[in-house]
Amino acid sequence: MTPTAKLALLTLPPVLAACFGALAAAWRAPGPNTSSVIQHFTGGIVFAAAALELLPQDRAHALFPVVVGFVLGIALMLAIRALSGAIETRFEAARLPVSLIVVTAIDLVVDGLVLGIAFSASDESGIILTVALTLEVLFLALSVSAALAAAGIGRVLSIVVPVGLAALLGIAAVAGNAAFAGLPANLYAALLGLGTVALLYLVTEELLVEAHEVPETPFATAAFFIGFIVFFLIEGSVKAG
């Protein structure tokens, strides 16, 4: 099996999660409180991925390139935020959730590139990060499928579109891995810094912001820390095995 085929196979779980999420939402979309709990749980897992998997790798490299990566990551995420806002304004009156689909596609491409960076370090790092992003994709599929169903789109498209979006993550991961493998140490350190910021932004400015659109509950708050602990246990199991 070629390295590209192997990586494509290893990134299949997010696509399968999207299938499950889209099917679940097409059958019965989760309510706001359930969505909030899922977002908190997913946020905890993604935060743990940044804290336990990427940050230790950042500290293993020279400080300056990592800081440059942090700055570039902040600039990139703010630029994406501005672009997302413009897209949402442009398609605000559209019957179809075009803005949600486009913004989700952008998010998944960025996440796929971060995954490609992780696989460039090692298969182990990539697999561990895939676990975190799989749950993110599950929630995004739920959201997109529910929005399409609410817009009166048929069930088939409500399932196919989220799965197609999830495939972008795998494609971006394969492309990113091919582009980033073999880079000089300083450039790779900068990419690690950028990837760390991208994951932290996903948690603090997207998942948790949306989760707090409904009244906070103790269970939802606990779900964040449960997600962190779950990822901690998964990472420990993978590295021990």
Commentary on this structure:
It is a single chain. With 241 residues, the protein is mainly α. It has one domain. 86% of the residues lie in helices and 0% in strands. The longest helix is centred in the first third of the chain and has 28 residues, at 32-59. The mean pLDDT is 87.
Which helices and strands appear, and what pairs or packs with what?
Elements: H1 3-10, H2 12-27, H3 32-59, H4 63-90, H5 98-121, H6 123-150, H7 155-180, H8 185-211, H9 218-240
Looking at this protein, list some descriptive labels:
globular; 241 residues; mainly alpha; single chain
Concise summary:
Residues 1-24 form the signal peptide. The chain is mainly alpha-helical. The protein has nine helices and no strands.
Q: What pattern of helices and strands is seen along the backbone?
A: HHHHHHHHH
Main sheet attributes: strand count, strand direction, barrel closure: none
Total domains: 1
Number of helices: 9
Strand content: under 5%
